[in-house]
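# step 3/5: fold
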Amino acid sequence: MVNAALLLALSCCAASPSVVVKPTNGPQVTGALVKLDSRELVLTVNGAARRFPVASLLSISTPGKLTTSVPKIRVTMLGNTLLLAREFSTKKTEAEVLLTDGRKVTVATRSINHVRWQLTPQLDGAWKEILASKRAGDSVVVRDGKSLDELEGVITDIDAERVGFTFDGKRRRVPRNKLAGIVYFHPGDRALPAAICKVTDRSGSQWFVKSMTLKGEALFFDNVTGEKSQLAVNQIVKMDFSTGNLVYLSDLEPQSVQWRPYVENTASQNLSLFFKPRKDKGFDGKKLTLGGQKFDKGFAVHSRTLMVFRMPGKFKNLTGLAGIHGKQGRGHVTLVIRGDNKQLVKKDIAAGDRPVPLNLNLTGIRRLTILVDFGKNLDVGDQLQLCEMRITK
């Protein structure tokens, strides 16, 4: 039965923002956004209410478009929230950030990991080294040609021209144009809650959200670091729920992988390196391809290979597409997938067959086993492609 609040929202649906919803399973749905919080999404579609548990969502897209303004500054927060900005300044414990779409936001400096304002791609590798290093204080990052160096101290207020920095007991105002950026020191490991989704706004900024509520045409949310923020729905480009609700198998590290040749010989040990499964590409190094369609995610697996995965949480479904690329000619394998000790599917697959869609129930399963076994033609051409293999809640 529809409650009074939902009836009121439905009566105003003409003004409700239109969105495109992609569930983890099933076709996408377009409708007017009526309700959205951390647990449930409600749309009106052809005058009727459609409800979706947040745990069943892959993404929500709006008609919003990214701004064409190029960011001058990247502010990376704890928990991976990324702010793309034109300006950045701090005073005491707060930072003011002017985003590329002209909006100003305020965040706590204790929630900022690092800030870059020299965005030369050639420095990306050097930045990774800086961020991976251990430190006992804040750091100003100095550029020296194509390399970076850091100096530890205490960062204070930052304005458009200078960075307040205390080093060896002396306070300094360091010109920003002498620096590539700054890194804030965070003592200990700050435990952060899991994000339910990643929100991309018109500026290209990405917010990792732990809770949210739609009020009118604005989304109010808490970042995983605890800051409260809000965005008008027309400022949102996409909400990505895949972080918590979907995992590609090729992004997981298998618990074990075993390959065995059709005929054991002294070269088997060396051959195992060549015939081990390929992640997100074929044995030729190119994109996975089945039925003329290319795929970004999945495996190429040679017979006979056994892969074992430990489920990273409570997932309900495994979906994907299995087949042998047409160029293999003679390949023939037996695919067996088991959940714990239960056989979920057993299928003979040959070159020239249509790709086999997989949709398996994983409820309660903790250990997933995928076996690509020898078929009828010894092991000639036995290169099975498992495309878009993903587990969903």
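# step 4/5: annotate
The first helix runs from residue 4 to 11.
# step 5/5: archive (pending)
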